[in-house]
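writing this on my phone so excuse typos. first protein, seq and then structure
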Amino acid sequence: MPRPAVVVIVGAGPNGAGLLERISANLDAAEELRTGPLEIHLVDPFPPGPGRVWRHAQSPLLRMNSMAEDVTMFTDESVRCQGPVRPGPSLAEWATAVRAGEITGVELDAELMSLRGNDFPTRQVQSKYLEWFFRHTIRRLPDSVTVHVHATTATAVTGNCDQAQQVWLADRVAPLAADAVVLALGHLDAEPEPEQRRLADFATEHGLAYLPPEYSADADLSAIPAGEPVVMRGFGQAFIDLMVLLTEGRGGRFEPVGDGLRYLPSGQEPVLYVGSRRGVPYHAKTTYRLQGESPELPKFFDANTIDGLLAQPGRLEFRRDVWPAMAKEIGWGYYRELFTGHPDKVAMDWAEFAEHFAELEFLGQRMRDLVARAVPAKADRLDLATLDRPLRGMSFDRFADLGGYLHDYVEQDLARRSDPAFSADLGAFLALLSVYGQLPRLLESGRLSARSQVEEFDGWWAGFFSFYASGPPGDRLEQLLALSRAGVLRFLGPDMWVRADAERGRFVAGSAGVTEELTASGLIEARLPRANARRSGAELLRRLVQDGDGAEEVLAEGAFGHNTGLLLVRGDDARVLDRDGRAHQRRFALGAHTNGRSVAAFARPRTNAPSFRRNDNVARELLRFLASAERPEDLVPVPRTAESEHVFGDLAGRSRC
């Protein structure tokens, strides 16, 4: 009887668990992908399913920025993949089934007992959902598959294309031997960048506090001083998490008052001065549903549009060639909902507007004229440029003056995102998700110019998408306003800057939009670490690149060159490429650390999510390889000992194909 095929998946969080589900589904459905007995090893020091980011052992104050009904780990009828669709419950449906006793083995707590579809759950609830998803996936595996979980860290992988792969673990001498390895490492820490080391050294020298980019749940906030001015650089999800941990997490309380909240300080809070490129917080998530007809998405940025773009000669520029069609798709989603859901707000029949809309460039003057005729109120028109940079051209003398303006801005945003009268914003959001789902094919083509990829896609577009679509629940912005009224949080403005002032021994900060400057006793980088394989917190990834068995993505054309720090994988099958551009047939990688670009490991139901398509494709490639490749009969590895460490070191650079 042939020995089992063996796969090691490094990373058992949502990426690894999602891949396991797709392996299971394809084994059930495709005879040509069946390998006979299959042994799968999952390696992760954190619990399988939630992994590090979503583990239960984190502050209960930290929450998701998605509603429970908008989170699923299961494919559905919208997903365009080769493998079979295997539906399952969204987070909200799962909670309902747990309460009804239809799903067992899950501990009911107060939050689960009351969770509704439009609630924004804690990450601890999401952890329970992901733990259950992992167990559910294991139960559905064919009898020919066995799974082993190793609660440890993988430190290296070695082996040529025609050899068994050796996956070395931190807690054992002998490595795991496998026919194929998948790196599903998720988000990773990184060694400090040169500027961050300089700022940390300055802080140490002058007795200041400095927090580099890191994951909020793991950040040591004990050095952030109470009562002292502290600069926060960043206004996204990491900022929200840190804002909560440094206020409510230090004993402060929010209480309802009138239509808002009042914050009662504990006295242990710092005084937070926050700024960013835009100078405003991410838009609040909507809580309403569409009022009109369901949008036909994608309409103007679909597979045919991608075909047309790829057929053009020469290199593509994102803002020039791609963004106009994307913007039109977003506009279509917005105006379809406005016209069909709120006919009292428009002065033209939908059919007439749609006909003209289809003929015009969305970013052109004729489209602006059409919208002006059809939509009387400016507040009901979609203005992407103003949405992108709401403080453009504004200036203030003092931080307090900016604060007054931003109070009004945030209150207006909260009103729009909670009032169904503005459900056209949800139409735009859904179109934005549709656009996002079409982009992997464009990226995999490699047709964007290097400069455009770095500055316009990775830079501008990724930021705009997060700003519009990945904001916090509305009550987080209500808390932000309460903290501002209490004097605990203040605003720095757009295009903020910060420098280490040796003469004063303090951090000095300001922005392009405010004349006033600030001296501070601390600096918090309120963002995640940038991907950087060579300086990754994962030893395995560092070794892979340093030894030449992996490579970082370098985008270069003419005089332009930029190292993204992302692990280079082949676009069509996610196989790892070495420094010479050769694909390793037995190694795959997916997730935020790769040049496949980050896609969320779970998704909103019925959105043809890229993560499900990616997982399905990698699972099929992996199974196809296992079914067709010759397998070495002997998978027993040579133990690694302290005395033979030099032998292990000699393997460096010998794993290339």
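second protein below, same order as before
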Amino acid sequence: MSEKTPPQSTEEQRRRIAEARHPDPFAFLGGPHGEKRRVRVYLPGATAVSVEAGPELEHVPGTDFFEGTLPADIPRPWQLRWVDGDGGEHAGYDPYAFGPQLADFDLHLFGEGRHWHPQNFLGAHPTTVDGVAGTQFGVWAPNADRVSVVGDFNGWDGRRHPMRVRGGSGVWEIFLPGVTVGTLYKFEIRARDGSVVTKTDPYGRCYELRPDTAAVVAAPDEYVWGDDAWMARRAEADWQAEPMSIYEVHLGSWQLGDDGEMLDYRELAHRLVDYVTARGYTHIELMPVTEHPLDASWGYQTTGYFAPTRRHGNPDDFRYFVDHCHRNGVGVLLDWVPAHFPRDAWALAEFDGTALYEHEDPRRGEHRDWGTLIFNYGRNEVRCFLLGSALYWLEHFHVDGLRVDAVASMLYLNYSREEGDWLPNIHGGHENLEAIDFLRELNTVTHGEQPGTMVIAEESTSWPQVTRPTWLGGLGFSMKWNMGWMHDTLTYMGEDPIHRKYYHDHLTFGLLYAFTENFVLPFSHDEVVHGKRSLLYRMPGDEWQRFANLRLLYALQFTYPGKKLQFMGCEFGQGEEWDDTRALDWYTLDYPLHQGVLRITDDLNRLYRKLPALHRRDFTEDGFEWIDCHDAEQSVLSYLRKDDQGRMAVVIFNLTPVTREGYRIGLPDGGVWREHLNSDAACYGGSDVGNGGAVVAEALPWMGRTHSAALTLPPLGALVLTPEGDESS
């Protein structure tokens, strides 16, 4: 008899229940069954069982089954009373007296890949059914022969609470009366080959603290938010024309408590908000706080796509974090990882004994470099899972945007693969057509359902139209990390200034494509790990020159077209490479040169926010003009930033340690031009060479401009000028 064949005899059915192999336990247990209204209960370890206000059930000799006839005047559901082998008395409602709870409509949409909130019926949900409080469980495991809920309420015994499967949907469900918030649980799954695995809930909204991996029945979302003003503004905001300066944070190592342990979300909220508002950043971007088993993965190997990690507290603690940020005018972005997931046997990998969430063929289903598995974007239910996760963070946690990790690995079937180790698409190409469709749907759905939120791509190739609308053939992302600009700029700045004239195009080339996408300019965690050194120690020269170069680098980032991102520690010139096992080197702020880096970071943030010319046209060509990009011999660059109201800012860089007196630069207008920023100022640790705070433009044509001024360019210095009378001056 196959596992899927319904057992015929009562004895065979009992045996299959006791061996946790019955394909339809609701057809045998519970009841009442047939005209005789038979009730059957399976309670291992019980010595006597009765129905409250009804009969005592007969113990079937040699088994853990109890059976009897239910009087007609006892309605569903009925409560059982039983005595265990130690004489303990217990009472509880029979879970097999409850009918199916999941709506056919939900199952239908889920199967078609059109359910955007599958977490509303899958996972664990405290609820009341027929006046009885308990928890409704649901899990997708279409290739399983049997699925049971196991937990601390049933001794982790898979025989006690096998679930019912809902037709061809592959979804298993059961309502367990008396299971309350805080209960630990997993799903025990019997595969078709007879193997049994215990899996944590893919839709779990809370988990144990690592290294433990059970899901926790979470309370319904009843958090009282105080960010209504922020959320209303978010829905209407034109973020493309607003300043966006992002502070990227790893919560586990930004700061630690006095005991050396990680801080909780609530304390982090206050410390971080105070810090980033003092610096002038507009947003915090969190490296993944989705639950993950391994600290060293930094969260990029996710196992809990609907749960904030317990390392810092519970889901409401994380809601408090976001709420506090919003109340203080700080946006929150979250790194989100739909590209791959880890192989942990207790999580998504071969979830029901088969390659369910991943591809079965390793040429499609494995990331060789990372030792992880790739989602099967062609499977409807997997797309629902990922879409549901994305919307859940935006809706239930009020997160303002998602930064999608490793997009390039999703787009290309041959990403980081040798010839012969990948399978082409149906047209013979290397594009992952299913992933492309998923990304377009992701962006269409999130932007439609949550207006004003952002989805940002970490995409490292020249894939076209990443940030163009889907209806124009684009992928529909809000923004894309400009990895080319980042690599070229850091390569240039890492060269000794005497050689920089040979690398001048590294700073000018980026403007050839700067407006083909909506770009973020990132100096992220990836640039200060794995032997790359900190940004400070990637700069050449002696100590003074390293700090001057770092200030120059940040001045370039904050005045160049595009939104800004800095990883924690960069803002004060962290000297050591980032180490996720310890806090940042805050002690360095005792030293003047580090204080100077922090001060110029503050001033650049404020200048970027204050001058509309530096942010209102970040994504369009009419917001930028070269003044002179050709002076490679002296390593000097100058450009003009403009907004939509005619306001201007002129930016000049001297990328060598040579002071240049009387350097004439073309300007668009005459009169006084105020010096808003001089990166060589003494307050930053510079040599204080400059122009006394202002220059006067003469009616002397120069560099194709009607006016010009002779400037003193400080060594390894940047200047930002605006015309006097400009309302932002």
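The first strand starts at residue 30 and ends at 33. thats all i got for now
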